[in-house]
Amino acid sequence: GENVEQHPSTLSVQEGDSAVIKCTYSDSASNYFPWYKQELGKRPQLIIDIRSNVGEKKDQRIAVTLNKTAKHFSLHITETQPEDSAVYFCAASFTGTASKLTFGTGTRLQVTL
Amino acid sequence: DSGVTQTPKHLITATGQRVTLRCSPRSGDLSVYWYQQSLDQGLQFLIQYYNGEERAKGNILERFSAQQFPDLHSELNLSSLELGDSALYFCASSVSWGELFFGEGSRLTVL
Question: Would you place residue A98 in the very low, low, confident or very high pLDDT band (cuts 50, 70, 90)?
Answer without folding.
Answer: low
